[in-house]
Design a protein that fits this description.
Blueprint: H1 8-21, E1 42-47, E2 53-58, E3 80-82, E4 86-92, H2 94-100, H3 102-113, H4 117-131, E5 136-142, E6 147-151, E7 157-165, E8 171-180, E9 185-188
Antiparallel strand pairs: 1-2, 3-4, 4-5, 5-6, 7-8, 8-9
Helix pairs in contact: 3-4
The structure holds aspartic acid.
């Protein structure tokens, strides 16, 4: 929802209503409740056959938040990040994802510690758990084409395609992986 100046009264109304609900997002010591946790996030990371990496995150946001809240998804380095080493996209409790710069941390582990994408996701999640009890799901791809996935919450649906090309974009072989976290199965070859 966006607000123009004319909508300021409505914003005040909503804020009053929000306070009356007594369920503020930041109220329970920064921990998420059941109601807060649902979202329609779609994250995507890719490496194409020319070596170009990309990352993107689309979010439905979270429930019980103040009007005007900006989560981690559009913040580069927090919910989304990409450079020449890899790309990463996050879903989960945005405030903590911002505090921990989770997407940037994942890619730094690839760049500076020479982790592959899976090791980087695992390490970043471990570090996150040390300072947050809230949910976090992550996907990443590294410049070698390895992908990594991980989650500390309940459910996350995933799909990945790995392909061998002739270097000009012609796909010689491909594997499609999909499933729900935890674990991805190779379904089709
Ligand atoms: N991370 C998002 C937010 O906090 C929610 C999500 O899409 O997982 O706004």
């Amino acid at each position: 929802k966006t607000y123009s100046k004319i909508d300021i009264k409505q914003l005040e109304e909503e804020f009053r209503f929000f306070k009356l609900m007594k369920k503020p997002d930041f109220g329970n010591n920064g921990e998420e409740s059941e109601e807060d946790s649902g979202s329609d996030t779609v994250g995507s990371v890719a490496l194409d056959y020319t070596g170009i990496l990309s990352a993107g995150t689309s979010t439905g946001g979270r429930g019980n938040c103040l009007p005007g809240r900006i989560g981690d998804s559009p913040i580069i380095g927090a919910g989304t990040y990409c450079n020449f080493s890899g790309g990463a996209s996050m879903t989960g409790f945005g405030e903590d994802v911002i505090r921990n710069c989770c997407a940037k941390r994942t890619i730094d582990l690839i760049k500076f510690n020479e982790f592959n994408a899976q090791l980087a996701v695992d390490r970043m999640l471990k570090e996150f758990k040390e300072c947050s009890k809230n949910s976090l799901g992550a996907i990443a791809v590294d410049f070698r084409g390895n992908f990594g996935v991980g989650m500390n919450g309940n459910s996350m649906n995933l799909a990945a395609v790995t392909a061998l090309t002739n270097g000009k974009g012609l796909v010689l072989d491909k594997e499609i992986h999909y499933g729900s976290y935890k674990g991805m199965e190779i379904i089709e070859k």
